User: Fold this.
Amino acid sequence: MTILNGVPLEPQPSEGPGPTASAESQTVGRVAGIVALISGVVFPPAGIVIGAIALQQARAGGYRNGFARAGLIIGIVLTALAIVAVIALAILVPQWVQQIAQLCEDHGEVVSGPGYYECTL
Assistant:
């Protein structure tokens, strides 16, 4: 070992693999992961937020949290599908209404007034 001014110059052995999570923090993290998974199915944006927080806590504690990861992924996928569905409906519904109105005008009796439209075929 080389010593310079009383300070060793060779690297010292590390004290361990890093931070480890207590059993209590792992339990809290696992519960947050399960909540993220359920939220990801019921209300996907909440699953994204809770899953991200639970994953961050798991990384800081040095353990894995599969429930949090699943909640995050399910939340992202279902949120994306919901956005696509809303866009598709925003495009299709006006076309359907127009087609129904045209069908009524061509083949039925139309009664309309302020705020309503009635068609009998």
Remarks:
- The chain has a mean pLDDT of 83.
- The first strand starts at residue 3 and ends at 4.
- The beta strands are 3-4, 7-8, 109-113, 116-120.
- The longest helix spans residues 66-107.
